[in-house]
Specification:
Layout lengths: L2 H8 L6 H4 L4 E5 L2 E4 L4 E4 L2 H4 L8 H12 L12 H15 L7 E3 L5 H16 L4 E4 L8 H5 L4 H5 L8 E4 L11 H10 L10 E4 L2 E2 L5 E2 L2 H13 L3 E5 L23 E4 L12 E4 L19 H14 L4 H23 L5 E6 L2 E6 L4 H11 L2 E2 L1 E3 L5 E4 L7 H21 L12
Parallel strand pairs: 3-15, 5-6, 5-7, 7-10, 10-11
Antiparallel strand pairs: 1-2, 2-3, 4-12, 8-9, 11-12, 13-14, 14-17, 16-17
Amino acid sequence: MEMMDIIENYESVVRSYVRSFPTVFEKARGSYLYDTNGDAYLDFFAGASVMNYGHNHPELKKALLDYLGDDNVVHSLDMATVTRARFLETFHDTILTPRGMNHRIQFPGPTGTNAVESALKIARKATGRPGVIAFTNAFHGMTLGSLSVTGNQFKRDGAGVPLSYTESMPYDSYFGDEFDTIDYMEKMLQDGGSGVGHPAAAIVETVQAEGGVNVASGEWLQKLQEACRRNDMLFIIDDIQTGNGRMGKYFSFEEFGLDPDVVTVSKSLSGVGFPLSLVLVKPEYDIWEPGEHNGTFRGFNPAMVAAQRAIELFWTDDRFEKEIAAKGKLVRKRLERIVEKYPEAQGTVRGRGMMQAVAFENEDIAGAISKKCFERKMIIETAGPNDEVLKLLPPLTTDNGDLERGLDLIEESLVGVLSDLGIAHQQSAANE
């Protein structure tokens, strides 16, 4: 039986990405995936920002193989190991201390949704209150607590039970640039007739990646933090997809001077694609009883080995930050030229750092571009409530030549989609 037939016959129909990218991948290096025919696919998806340092980075792979080859501990629950201590020290000294953060580090379980569940529990335990404020178009994970603070109705409906103890508030610019949604939120919090009550926390993404690459301004985020302080609520930042350098700096909130009480981190943390997540919690809220939140795989030592090496390679100085910033500007500028060149596509560029996107008025365009890119041996995904946003997530280590090549493929695919849809090309300043 062919490999794809095996997957189709034996795996649950819940699978999704294989439907968008219908080939069998076998190998991966740098910014490329290779299928069983040896065809190379330029990766502008990076495992939903899991592979920020590229596939099979040689230094990270070496650290991992050396560790496994020497009979070191693989699984340890939360027992003490040399690996755990070294990772904690490296993360504290290289990531937290230089950023003025004194947060304790919790290993909640292997994935991002484990971290979110833990963060919600922390807020409720610390305040004694059950409610949590989330935001429109948010995505925080697929377990019940994470779904309760997720906005996408399709995902929420999959829970099959009521999702309670949360209030949805409008994200930045949800009603347009002139409407201050934090003022609205504060009014709801302070009005005894609003029905909102007194929540334990607010949880927010600085950029809503799955929600459509909706970018919150620094001013809006600062006002949200101030509102949490005034209303005795914990301020939680979900930095799972936006962290680990994706926005330019290690944490997506650094440039705004924010001081979150709790931060969730996962995705590219291990550097090699291994599951690993953290909850960063201020000491005054680190009030767990031993074992009150646990998980079988909260001690996956090989992931910690690779994560430590990634920090040593990329985050001991600001060179990688500057490289990401330059690449982000390159991608942004080129996307802006493309939407200006093809005004008939009605596209709008949005994003920060190395998470850039184009939102289309016609909801069929983004998915059609993704399909044509795949035909051209490129992987790129869509986002937004109706998959109307083309989202670019190349590995942060992608060189400029491959970035330009990917942008060329996006433009070629857009031209093909417009032709298929019978949308006539309009002249613009960029064409003249």
